[in-house]
Amino acid sequence: MEGKHISRRTFLAGVGTLVVGFHLAPLLEQGVAQAASATDTTGRLGVDAWLVVNRDGMITIYSGKVELGTGVQTALTQIVVEELYVRMEQVRYVQGDTALTPNQGYTAGSKTIQNQGPLLRRAAATAFRKLLDLAAEQLGVPVTELRAQDGTIGVGQNLDPARSYGDLIGQQTLQLTSDSLVSLKNPDNYQVVGRSVPRVELPEKFTARFTYVQDMVVPNMVHGRVVRPSGRNARLVSVDLSSVESIPGFLTVVKQGNFVGVVATTEWAAIQAAKSLEVEWQQGSSLLDQKSLPQELQNPANIYQADDRQVDIGNVDTALASAARRLRATYFTPVQAHSAMAPSCAVADVRGDQAIVWSSTQGVYPLRGALAELLGLPTTAVRVIYIESSGCYGHNGADDVAADAALLSKAVGRPVRVQWMRQDEHGWEPLSPAMLHQMEGGLDGSGSVVAWKHTVFTPTHSTRPGSRAGNLLAGQAIGFLPPPLPNSPRNNGTRNGPVNYRFANDRYVANHIKFFKTADGTSSPAAPLTYTLLRPSALRTLGGFSNTFANESFIDELAAAGGVDPLTFRLRYLDDPRAVAVLEAMAKQAGWERSLPPSSGSVRWGRGIAFLRYETKEAYVAVYAEVAVDTSTGGIIVTRVVVAHDCGQIVNPDGVRNQIEGNVIQGVSRALKEEVRFDEKGVTSLLWHKSGYAVINFTEVPAVEIVLLDHPSEPSWGAGEPAIGGVPAAIGNAVFNAIGARLRTLPFTPARVKEALAAT
């Protein structure tokens, strides 16, 4: 287990370094974190977060935020390069290692550039200021006469004489604290930030030289598989070891509580052993019925906290009662999956009182805490190292498979690699929960909104490890319970539930749904743990996807009822110039004033729009969709999507476009096809096909046009999540424009289209 006891201090031992640490004293926390116009809900930088200038002139970023395939490594590197006047190739990026990098919680919520970017910028500026002081002292000139380029500081425009950063540092080891008052580079002078710099990690990915966690091999490694219960609440009765003893390469069966796993010398042997092992299970309580899920979400017996009024402006009840026209509608989003292209994988080496785990987790420190509890070790004895896997945009099986590997490794005393199969991922990963929205609005005689009311029914959207073994499948299998249900969770299932439209009477009410049986009179799980719903957790935007679907569909209903153009109707209730600008930019690019092609046979064309401001205070997004609907088959083809996007200062335009394109593709797929199917035991849509978990294919990807509204002098906001929220509503509104029938349940399948047509 080499490297297990490594520390940052040991890693940086020697001479010739300049180290900048972040100390979030109140002034810095207020001046930097709040300047980013966001609260970092994913953790806080400590005193041991470092940016290092080495004697060889190389810069090393130690980042608790990790590269998930979203381009943050490139963007964060650009920020450092800009302030330090170095080249991209002069920067190393060390990420997600509990022995080397700071605890920054999770890489999630589109918060990496938004929250870590300003901190790294100040750290780099602090380092550069020190280098300027060293150069002024060594060259004998005032700082005002110095210029910097490519890791060198010199006198005048020609940098003559000049010293490299390494020469300036010499044999010194300098430790600095990030200066909250340090001067930052003027955005007008940016040379790297704001430009489409090529992604630094892509060449190795394109040439098959990149090491994903699935490619990890360590000495003396064996392979494991977990045999899952026959139902979500099934209990282990017995295991017949003789059923697998003859398999070549089989080593052992590991049984602890409800956890059953096999270990073998090869992956194929592990697969065969898991498939052949005879296990008897006793079926437990049934899950709630999928067909009646909309009703079950409204059942008071399943609500643990009701009438959580998160917005209550004016007098909604009186305004609704006196409205000239009153509209009601119910919207529903089903359970959906991350559906990552590669199933989750991890390698664990647990021997004696030490553990090291290689995982694609989005939070190495929270996972470390959970694994420590699972293994009965102090957290200091567990090291978690991030290794990239396929993208998932949320909490998939990465943490659970790490726990599987850790338990198996502890049992056999050697490194174990566990590779989930597609059935494991679809069947047992945490899922985006179903949500139901009751919408109610009132119009006056002129068609203006006098009242808006949105009531949501939602389980939690986060069961990430959180340093709790009870949040891991393996932990639950051996008897750990998850924490109590969250008390009045905000910006979770209720993300983007409140709207940015200025309505005089506006109410947003949340009803929080339990997903397991609770002990009488509490929000704590009853023992033994008994699920009533599939385990929920974070998927791209959390509740924002479904909330925006309901909000932006219903405002279209109000516009139609009032006889007002949907764009004009939205603009009427927005007083934020940047919100107006993003809608106008979308409309201009889309050609909102132009006519669509005429109908042809059974095909009808339509267009629709949607608007949101992510989390109501961050990136602005306007989405336009064009669709062709075949009224004979019910099929929908999304032919064109336009997105106008304002995320403040853009660090890498091409990277932002990549994220928006991904949002659109996943949004179209979730709007048209994606739905987890399950019965009383658990998930039944275990594979990718029409009768399983369907996703769109390449031929169904629409043309995507993007308009970026850059604000170089404003804080950056994340771009990894916002755009997807507007996609389903824009498509649904386009379908209504095409056929005059409103779709209120996702996904928009042909059967639902034909049902809506029949009801008109």
Polypeptide structure, described:
With 760 residues, the protein is of the alpha+beta class. The chain has four domains: 8-199, Aldehyde oxidase/xanthine dehydrogenase, molybdopterin binding domain (Aldehyde Oxidoreductase, domain 4); 213-283 and 338-428, Aldehyde Oxidoreductase, domain 4 (2-Layer Sandwich), CATH 3.30.365.10; 289-333 and 432-575, Aldehyde Oxidoreductase, domain 4 (2-Layer Sandwich), CATH 3.30.365; 577-759, Aldehyde oxidase/xanthine dehydrogenase, molybdopterin binding domain (Aldehyde Oxidoreductase, domain 4), CATH 3.30.365.10. Helix 13 (473-477) links the parallel strand 21 and strand 22. Helix 3 packs parallel to helix 4 (112-139) and helix 17 (653-672) packs across helix 18 (727-739). The protein is globular and about 80 Å long. It starts with 7 loop residues before the first helix and ends with a helix.
